[in-house]
Amino acid sequence: MKKRIVSFSLSILVVGILISFTNTSEDKSYVLNYKNKLALFEQNELELIDLINKQNCINNIEIVKDKILQVRKCFKGLDFWFRYLEPTSQKKINGPLPVEWETEVFEKYEKPYKREGAGYTLALQYLEEEQIDKQVLLNLVNKSLIATQTYKADSITNLLKTYHSFYLCNRLFLLNLATIYTSGFDCPTKENILPELLNMMEDVNSIYTSYNSSFPNQNLPENYLSIYKNAINFVANEPKEFNQFNHFGFIKNYVNPLFGINQQLINLYKVQSKSVVDYSLTKNATSIFSKNIYTGQNTKGIYLRVTDEKALTEISNLGKLLFYDPILSANNERSCASCHKPTEFFTDTINKTSLQYNRTDFLERNTPTLLNSPYNHLIMADGKHINLQSQTSEVITNEKEMGSTEKEVLNKILSCDEYKNTLTYLLTLTPTQKEISFNHVISAITYYYSQFSNYNSPFDDAMNNQQNVSIEVQNGFNVFMGKGECGTCHFAPQFNGVKPPYVGSEFEVIGVPQTLAYASISNDKGRFLINPATETLNAFRTGTIRNAAKTKPYMHNGIFNTLDEVIDFYNNGGGAGKGLNIPNQTLSADSLQLTNLEKQNLIAFIQSLTENIPFEQAPKKLPKSTKKILNKRLVGGIY
Asked: Using one digit for the tens of pLDDT, what is the confidence trace for 40-49?
């Protein structure tokens, strides 16, 4: 399993999500189900604390472990509600990480802050230590008991008196069935992943029964319940060995169809939300593998309110010209396309890192693909930027990249009549702006390249029953979610570090070396440069696996040139597995022991995530300027 000892995520703090609705339950079975499960869970927590307090039990770890597993079983029957209604407290009960760096709805509103975890995943991990301190164990469990009290409050139980929260809880539950519940993200022992999954699904079935009894007018229809019961039977009849579980069949044939029905019911019953848990998720996606399932970035920037198709085409056309125009650089010889080559999936597949502005040195980091960047909440490998426009602006003004200034760029652009006329028209679409600004320029660029992130891959089409994929791809996905442990960091559908409910980006320390000799870890401090902390040193945002077959070289420093090298790196336990001293590595140093066939299947799955993108030809010419020297510039730049 992933070590995940000191990793962290940019997650959420839910405050004040109580909603007042008039449609409430007369039949109390749904609320009673919740309260009975909660009482049983609390009782088991108290019994565990009493057990740990008995000195001799620390000498018999198996007794304590069995009781923790029993407590976890009770908890799993409540996670349906806990994870949605109060996720901060949920992490005190079963958070996978002892230290997290979290912000309220990522960093768009406040800086990261340190949060210490607790609960039963950490307790099980602690029992694997050579020396067990009773007080440490009690501290983990006591914090969970305190967090449990949160869920007894009226502010929580009142939410259960409406059907609105049920469908939102259920949506998150289904998303987690496709990601964390089936990957072992918050279960440290592989042998317990499937038993906990089955117990949870059976408990949720009882939730469904009690809910339908309480809300006959907004109930779950029979087709949903039938598919769900078949899903339970599927899990029950699968091999007991986790590495043999058919993740592909489970998600494709059961979880994804259930998600689609639940989304339809959310719209049918006009479900309302005032929770930041739902900040990114959309109501119009009926598949987990839909590109519009969640929103990460405002790709339009200053043109956010523009919806007219003709106007959007104008913005896109402007963005395309600007993307290829070296007028953005100080020397008029570098364009966005110099490093983010559209024919190479908007990255640089030739160099480990692209050439600097000075034509001599190379940049410190590999050029990331721009494809699917809109599905990140934080931009750059270190999460420095909270929006695409800010990142674009820095590239243009960075002395190592394009070396220009906002004022200089705007002056040169407005010297071209074609640009000036288009921007003058677009100014009318942004009525709060009094004059053409640099923001009009960079927003056109981000809107242009972001449109290439709207396409599906063969794997998406297979999950949506639009085509078939080979057995090698299916087996590769099962390795990805199972034995390979990739799914504990790369979450569907984007297979990046943004996990349900898709409001934050995870960062990991995996120990990427400075050279292939593995003499030292990369000297790039990563996230530490933005948010200095012991846990953030050498941490990087988890990128997407989509199009990875086309976007070599790999890692932030471009150290690996093939997918085989990348898989071997993970298979060997990252930098720590190769002997580097990395105390805060979040990747387990243990070998995954993947066979050659499993590696080949894993690559087949990654290749199936190559998206069907209709790349465009570069513009044939660039707008002419009144400044003759600017008319020497070439489409795409020189270097």
From this structure: 999 999 999 9
